[in-house]
Amino acid sequence: RRVAAISSDPSGIYVRSTNYPRTIETAQYVLRGLANDNWRQTITINTVPSAEELMVGTNKKACPNLGEKFKEGREYYARNTPAQALKLRYQLQDSLSSAACSTLSVGNSKDDWKGNNLIPTNDALKCLSAHGMPLPSWADHQLAKDAHSCAGTQIAYLMQKDGKDSSFRTEVSRLGIGRFLALISSSMEDFITCKPESKTMKLYSGHDTTVLPVLISYQLFNGTWPSFCSSIVWELHRHKTTGNHYVRVLYDFKPMSLLPVTTSGIAQIGSSAFVPFDKFKALTNSLSPTDFESECSVCCKPHMKEGESVVRQKDIDPGKF
Question: How far is it, in rounded angstroms, from Cα 140 to Cα 135?
Fold first, then answer.
């Protein structure tokens, strides 16, 4: 029923994408899936310049201090590279030319992060598999599976020091994806308070570097790199009797329980998939920067609010797509 209501009134939809053809095309496909046969209303897909992008949790251009944190995470990984990653690195070195190793960022390097960086290998093999293409002669499905596992471990080291440093994880989350989390929370509050600019649905098309930091922020990351077309859904519910509002978070359409957070001032949320909005807002506040510009040690323009003019817009008629 909810999808039917959105499909019949597309004016209630706001769409935002990172400024990449593939993410814009993803938004197009999702809109086309929502559209009914009679839908001919134009929907604007909003974008902003990459330097202002808050949907990517690794945007060092927007926050130099985040780059320093990632440098610390890379050094931690270099000092504590797991045995499985080292084994796979040497396996690739034995199978590939030096040029191929350089392309995949594995092999001998003065920088142990680069030498043991298995994320490019995972990306290459994952793309081939997802599109039904054969793996290269030097790889089999077991190697692809190992690369996938190692890449997940590597990003855990980069963004949360393998989960062993909660303060580091919180700081990286706040600077990397915190503003986006705050945007989600404020959008829900706008809807609750019936602000004119509120929308029934907001669609954001991003990257694995959007999904991963969100999962890590909520302490939901299980070490597995998100698959193609992974999604996170924030649902706002209203209790029929009390009128109170609740938030439910779904990852790949499965309800997720927000884990207890021990950040100062935040009560434990518990295991319920439905979180009271006030507690969800408090959680979001703990994961969002209070003064992004000063915390990043940069002087930049305040980020534009939704609904203001954007640098680039792409008008899409899903009915003609």
Answer: 7
Q: Is residue 165 over pLDDT 90?
A: no
Q: Is the dihedral of CA 274, 276, 277, 283 positive or negative?
A: negative
The 10 Å Cβ neighbour count of residue 305 is: 9
Could you give the CA distance from residue 103 to residue 88 in angstroms, rounded to a whole number?
16
Do the strands 232-238 and 254-256 form a parallel or antiparallel pair, or are they unpaired? unpaired
Retrieve residue 164's tokens: 């062993």
pLDDT per position as a tens digit, 98-137:
888 888 888 766 566 778 889 999 999 999 998 899 999 9
Q: What is the mean pLDDT of residues 280-301?
A: 83
Mean pLDDT in residue range 253-273 = 60
Q: At 261, which helix (H) or strand (E)? A: none
Model pTM? 0.83
Residue 142: other Cβ atoms inside 10 A: 8
Q: 119-126 contacts: CB < 8 A, separation 24 or more?
A: 119/151, 119/154, 119/155, 121/88, 121/92, 121/147, 121/151, 122/147, 122/148, 122/150, 122/151, 122/225, 123/151, 126/225, 126/227, 126/228
Task: Say which residue the tokens 């909660």 belong to.
Answer: 166
Alpha carbon distance 129, 125 (integer Å): 6
* Contact (CB, 8 A) for 210 and 228: no
Expressed in percent and rounded to 5, the helix, strand and coil fractions of the chain are 50, 15, 40
Mean pLDDT of all residues in 160-177: 88
